[in-house]
Amino acid sequence: MKAGGKMTGDSREINTGDVFLAYPVGNERQSTDNRSYINNGLNNGAALVLYEPLGLEKILDKKELDKILTNDKCIAIENLAEQAGYIAAYWHKRPSQSMYVVGVTGTNGKTTVTQWIAQALQSKYKKTAVIGTLGAGLLGQLERTGFTTPDAPRTQSLLKNIQIQDASAVAIEVSSHALDQFRVNGIEFDTVIITNLTQDHLDYHGSMAEYAKSKKKILGLPGIKNIIINADDNFGQECLVELNKSLHLDINIWAYATQAEKLSSLPSSPSRRIRKILAENIQTQHDGMAFDLSIEDQSFGNIQSQLIGVFNISNSLAVLATLIANEYSESEAIKEVKKLKPIVGRMELVRGKTAHAPMALVDFAHTPDALEQTLKALRPIANQRSGKLWCVFGCGGDRDNSKRPLMGRIAEQFADEVMVTSDNPRSEDPVKIITEILSGCKAVEKIQKNSDRATAILQVIRQARQEDVVLVAGKGHEEVQEILGKRHAFSDQLHLQLAMGGAAV
Fold first, then answer.
1. Domain 348-499's class?
2. Contact predicate 372/414, CB 8 Å
3. pLDDT in tens, 433-483
4. Which of 47, 148, 157, 443 has its CA 20 to 30 A from that of 131?
5. Measured distance CA(185)–CA(155) in Å, rounded
């Protein structure tokens, strides 16, 4: 049966001897079902098809259904969506079992934290890997997958490839979709992290309560040894309170914060000790930030960081906790955290070649909370430079439209000058999206708008002064813009460089 050696949920990838997993995922708001391609998979040479039988008759005509029901290569497995990850894991001989695996979930910070963990763990594991928004593979050799967390068969295949390349540690971004759709079932996590929970993906989840419910599933994955949670976040506090009552006493729990009162208010019990990491007295400096660090109420002095933004200090604490949980000494862990640098598209400084160019940054901030925190992080820098803070942003099409006015309100409140433009409009009219963003603003007449993102960036750079700070938010690392079903090459970094006198394309 394993002649082809591949197990996949994409019938287009099937070659002779491969195994096709066919099952529906999603909910009443958004769903996909690859079972309509079962016969395509068989025609492409599938040696075996495992399929979810429930409701199959609703998506196939009688002729196609009979072909499947009478074919010895097709085996029905109930609840296949939940079982697929475990099946794929065993198919690949449980690759995650031989590696140190960290899973990171949260609305914001997943990419940064996973990249930093992979960087920091290299001092111990030599070869480390990442699966996430920027791609999958050995650190520095990532290949784009198009997903934050791919489907279960694909994720297990990626883990196997990473194992073959001798990586001994991997950090995985775990999206709420992945948790809701069981994509990480079969992965043997050692440590899991929750960074925060703010509004996003309500087009899929429907409500914040359902979104939170999906995120919380990461805490119930089997075999976890360490749980690390942001105590500054209300959802994090909720999770910590629940974990304090947990009977799983063999799990180590870490709470990190930038607000001392968030740690002091945590519950305690004779049978459960929550370990604590605190960064306080955070100061913005010209080339980064500094803060006082304490671990388990022991002071480790003032830490100098190359990072910008309190949220990045918070993210670095998640990395620090991961290292200590992995038996690094405090001094070793601190040494690694001091080395951390911004990730591409995450508070990334883009330098201009002209003397009068403003300070320009690109950030992936595409949720209300992320945009607010990013602007708040840049405000002290703009003040130090005696300049204005500019914000260029848009909102994606075919996604949660309730956040659009919220982001307009936040940009207006926390930036001095705002340019509303397109993000990835997809099938929607960019002008309509911009109008919905502006509906959350009080002084619409003071806000600039331009649906062409390239010229919007150029306009702002031409208006901004040398002492100003310009944030281009929403796309971060992305290199394409999706418009009416087509993907056009587009890089915020490149357009900023061109606007500031950079090299021609």
1. alpha beta
2. yes
3. 999 999 999 999 999 999 999 999 999 999 999 999 999 999 999 999 999
4. 47
5. 10
**What is the pLDDT at residue 444?**
95
- Identify the pLDDT of residue 2: 43
Output the CATH code of domain 87-338. Answer: 3.40.1190.10
Going through 134-221 in order, the beta strands assigned E by DSSP cover 135-138, 169-173, 191-194
Report how far residue 85's alpha carbon sits from residue 275's, in angstroms, rounded to the nearest whole number.
Answer: 32
Separation in Å, CA 334 to CA 263, 276, 398: 20, 15, 42
As given in the structure block, the two tokens for residue 436 are: 């919905």
Q: Kindly report the three-state secondary structure assignment for every residue of 82-139.
A: HHHHHHHHHHCCCHHHHCEEEEEECCCCHHHHHHHHHHHHHHHHCCEEEEECCEEEEC
Burial of 400 (0-12, 13-18, 19+ CB in 10 A): middle
For strands 480-483 and 486-489, give the pairing: antiparallel
Contact 453, 490 (CB under 8 A): yes
**Is residue 321 a contact partner of residue 256, using CB atoms and an 8 Å limit?**
yes
pLDDT score at 286: 65
CATH number of 7-78: 3.40.1390.10
The tokens of 337 are what? Answer: 């955290």
CB 428 within 8 A of CB 390: no
Q: Which amino acid is at 500?
A: M
CA trace torsion 335, 339, 343, 346 (10° rounding): 80
Q: Quick one: tokens of 137?
A: 């593979």
The mean per-residue pLDDT over the stretch 252-259 comes to 96
Are the CB atoms for 286 and 384 separated by under 8 Å? Answer: yes
Q: 179 by DSSP, 3-state: which?
A: helix
Domain ranges of the chain: 7-78, 87-338, 348-499
Q: pLDDT-based confidence at 306, cuts 50/70/90?
A: confident
What's the one-letter identity of residue 439? S
Terminal-residue alpha carbon distance, the chain: 50
Is residue 173 classed as helix, strand or coil in its secondary structure?
Answer: strand
Answer whether 328's CB lies under 8 Å from 272's CB.
no
Give the rounded distance of the alpha carbon of 180 from its chain centre: 15
Does the structure show a pLDDT above 60 at 504?
no
Pairwise CA distance, residues 52 & 50, whole Å: 7
